[in-house]
Amino acid sequence: MISMSIQLQPEDGPARKQKKRRVVWFPHQPSDRSPADRSFIEDARRNGGALHWGGDGKIQADKSMTALLRSLLAASEKAACIAQLCRQEETLFSLLIEEKRGADKNKKFLQDFKTLADVLIQEVIKHDVGKEFPELQDHICGEESNKFENGLGEIVVVRVCSTQQETAALLQKVLDRKQMAAELLAAAVHQEIVLSDPALDNVDVTISTESLAVWIDPIDSTNQYIRGCGSVMPVNGIYPSGLHSALVLIGVYNRHSGEPVLGIINEPFFQEELAAHRWQSKYHWGISYGSTKLSSLSQPRHQPSPCVVLSSNETTVLQKALAPLYGERLCFASGAGYKMLCVALGLADAYVLSEDSTFKWDSCGPHAILRALGGGIVDLSASLKVWRAGQHKNLPELTYNKPIEGAVGAERWANQGGLIAYVYHKHLEAVMVTLANATDTF
């Protein structure tokens, strides 16, 4: 097999200036191209794909990571629209809440809720991205079950239908025949999202999607999404609670290594337009694949004073252990994804969690962004073990491809042992030294 970069040209006429694409030539490829092959080549060239000859002698194309990024960003924007709609329409919002039960209940909260917005957003992302990338269709997973129980006790499997009318009819079953509410949601589900982001035009990364999988957290910090308000004021730039911590998280990882390679964080409630009574969203993304490190964010500036962000119900043991390093600069916030975003934005040096209360869908997307910025997310318990044994480099990071043996439900995908999220290695090392020397053992 020979690998080379060439410049694809139209079959007739002069060569046009094109960016180089990676083309892999297999032995015994056909000497002549059929009209269908020529058409396929042109289509792949226009869409920035990589071509190769398959074992059956047919031309195949790998869409670039850039195309996947665009697809996921568009899906995240649609997700943000649905989340906003469900909060803005009070009548609609009151219909959308049901309590999680059984194995899917997050043990962290006495009342942990699943909303139709959660389920619908998850299914929209699976539908839209899976349609464009069929090879990912069976590898797009999320926090939520798509089975929803309505007020009549009926179990409805939520999905995106082929038409807006069919989706509305399905949603009416969930919403106890509330036609207007169902039609509002169906319109949001089937709307076309057109991204207008010049920065994406400069992104040109080609990575095969065949070995990738996707984690989705439709609305991270569901508790704040349901009960939070938009008028909470930030403390040192960090919102301790409220709608600002409710995020859409999408993470792409390598199915074989478990490493995160692409992440998206969408803030549906980034900024409120008071006059229009609506919210503006904002997204952030990062790609980390081998030596390729790209992000919509720049590396944050170093804080003049050390700062760490913790969960609002973090143990007093951890808080006391970190006090010598951070003193009064212990900040608290809701939502695992939001705290990771605070680190990526430079509002905190690190996010430290001692409990098993986060999951793969919470951390995969933010992890990829942090890696793109030069940081990462390490397993707290495993890292302390090797640190105390004298290994201070290459601490074990979270991976995303293997469930916990013997666990059931959501716990199969918990981040056991806690975590530390960081951008700069010196901040990670400072936390590790402090915790390793703490009187109490973690």
UniProtKB/TrEMBL annotation:
Keywords: Hydrolase, Lithium, Magnesium, Metal-binding, Phosphoprotein. It comes from the Eukaryota. GO terms for molecular function: inositol-1,4-bisphosphate 1-phosphatase activity; metal ion binding. Its cofactor is Mg(2+). Pathway: Signal transduction; phosphatidylinositol signaling pathway. It catalyses: 1D-myo-inositol 1,3,4-trisphosphate + H2O = 1D-myo-inositol 3,4-bisphosphate + phosphate; 1D-myo-inositol 1,4-bisphosphate + H2O = 1D-myo-inositol 4-phosphate + phosphate. One of its GO terms (biological process) is phosphatidylinositol phosphate biosynthetic process. Residues 1-21 are annotated as: Disordered. Pfam families: Inositol_P. Monomer. Belongs to the inositol monophosphatase superfamily. This is Inositol polyphosphate 1-phosphatase. It comes from Ophiophagus hannah (King cobra). The lineage of its organism: Eukaryota, Metazoa, Chordata, Craniata, Vertebrata.
